[in-house]
Amino acid sequence: MAFPDGLLNFADSHYRTIRITLIGAILVLAALLGFFVLRPIVAELNAPPRLSINIAPSSADILIGDQHYRCGLYEFPPGDYHAQISADGFNAKDLDFTVTPHGTTIITDYLVHSNEGLAYFERNAIDLTTLRAVDTPEIRDFLQAYDRKAAIITELPFTGNYDANANKNAAPVSEYSFKITDGSRHADCQRVICLLISSYKANPTILKHAVSQKLQEKGYNLDDYQTIYELR
Q1: Which domain holds residue 207?
Q2: End of a domain among 108, 134, 160?
Q3: What letter does residue 124 receive in the DSSP assignment?
Q4: 3-state secondary structure 5-71
Q5: pTM of this prediction?
Q6: Structural domains counted in the chain
Q7: d(Cα 28, Cα 16) in Å, to the nearest integer?
Q8: Tens digits of residue pLDDT in 70-123
Q9: The domain spanning residue 95 has which CATH number?
Q10: Which of 80, 99, 134 is the C-terminal boundary of a domain?
Q11: Integer angstrom CA distances of residue 196 from 55, 107, 123, 176, 188
């Protein structure tokens, strides 16, 4: 059975329209790909070489040649360099690196505090972020231990009771309650994580022991945190 010529012409015209539409869509996608993907790559290749310095602590001084630098982003000539990194109270170290002709060269490192070791970085969230870009066994172990301690924030508050009288045979025995909350925003907090202990005025030794027991029940160690007591 033969199809009418008009129907065949309509089908052929419809097919050409679809084909043209598809070709147009492909060209638009190619243009978008070139604009959003290739253009930034080309721009990066044509950009002057840069050096991104990320050191913990953020106050570190980086001596390269006869110039002193701080953490930040700098335009830098390509080549091999030697840096001396130092900060007050920290053990200094040397670092060799190469700035590539294109793009941004990133150097990330850290210094160890002379007295507090890596525990110093528990005071500063910015330094902790920098350390997460460092891949050494020492830093991995430190961050794993820190993250275990930091997990307590997701479980707070904790509450408990304790006897204010150290002598259990004495009468009367006064029972007090306490509450452990996140004290990171407290004015006296000097670390990224602090615990705020709220209770009534009582024997501080007994209160500390009760708080320590509560934390042990939850799988935490009181000595791992800066504690701030608010006694009413």
Answers
A1: 152-231
A2: 134
A3: -
A4: HHHHHHHHHHHHHHHHHHHHHHHHHHHHHHHHHHHHHHHHHHCCCEEEEEEECCCCEEEECCEEECC
A5: 0.70
A6: 2
A7: 18
A8: 999 999 999 999 999 999 999 999 999 999 998 899 999 999 999 999 999 998
A9: 2.60.40.1120
A10: 134
A11: 31, 38, 16, 16, 10
